[in-house]
Amino acid sequence: MEEVYNYLLNDVGIRHRDTLCIGVSGGPDSMALLDLTMKLKKELDLVLVVAHVNHNVREESKEEEAYLRDFCKENGLHFECYRIEHYGDDNFHNEARTIRYNFFDQVCKDYNAKFLLTAHHGDDLIETILMRIVRGSTLKGYSGFSRVVEKEDYTILRPLITVTKEDLTNYCENNNIKYFIDKSNLKDVYTRNRYRKYILPFLKDEDKMVHEKFLKFSETLMEYNNYIEREMNLVINKVFKNGVLDIPRFKELDHLIQTKIISSILEKIYGDDLLIITNTHVNLIFNLINSYKPNSVVHLPNNVKAIKSYNELTFAFMDEVDDKYEIELNEIVNLPNGKIIEKVNDSDDTSNFVTRLNSKEISLPLYVRTRRNGDKMIVKGMNGHKKVNDIFIDSKIVSKDRNVWPVIVDSEERVIWVPGLKKSKFDKEICQEYDIILKYS
Question: Lowest-pLDDT range, 43-47, 241-245, 324-328?
Answer without folding.
Answer: 324-328
